[in-house]
Amino acid sequence: MRRSIALLLFVLACSVAPAFAGIVFEAHLTGAQSVPPNSSLASADGVFTLNDAGTQLSWVITFQGLEAPLISAHLHRVPTGTGVPLTIGLNPPLGLTSGSWSGVANVSPTTVAEMQAGMFYANIHSEAYVDGEIRGTLVVSTTTGARRGTWGRIKALYRSQGPGGR
């Protein structure tokens, strides 16, 4: 009997999902979302995946059509429609007008909570728009099909865009 209860408890413990499993954020960046809005026709799509422990954020970002070479990219913490100092550097490939990249950064529990509350946006800066050419708010993904909480969504995005962008 004890062995059966111990086995049942073990199975239950192994089947409980981690607190952050499945949290994937997406962002679609455009010039119209920049503050102030601009006429750039550039765009980008980003997929941001939180690890199961909720301590690291990984991303894949694909961008195209910047009016001038890329000079920086960041995540900022602030409600949509305003600007704020850099929060997380995204370490993009500099000097390109189209392409894609991936990365990872450590995040705090406060940052995770604020991301879930919609308080983060991605911003890509170019030589033509040093304050930001394109911008988009991170939102919790509602996309189905790819397994959330794994690299499935990131791989699917990368495969659909190809290594050289769209």
From TrEMBL:
InterPro entries from the UniProt entry: CHRD (IPR010895)
Pfam families recorded: CHRD
Signal peptide start and end residues: 1-21
PROSITE patterns linked to this entry: CHRD
Keywords, in A-Z order: Signal
Presence of keyword Transferase: no
Domain CHRD: 21-143
Annotated protein name in UniProt: CHRD domain-containing protein
Upper classification of the organism: Bacteria, Candidatus Eiseniibacteriota
